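Appendix B, Record 12. Input sequence as logged:
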Amino acid sequence: MGLRNAEITGLTSDCIRWEEGEVLVMKSLRRDGYCSGHHSWAPTKTGPERLVPLTHQVLETLKKHQ
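Logged structural output:
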């Protein structure tokens, strides 16, 4: 199970469940046109929220950038 590009760019700190070692995917950040530079929040492509487990290495990297 992975994340789509728009879901990755839409991640915010409230999506990370540190204790559980997972990320809650509930939104995505979409471009409104290729060159316009405008972005908007959108639901995920498949609709419902889902949990994606994170490896220890990913969690440590995220903590460094928090």
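The mean pLDDT is 88.
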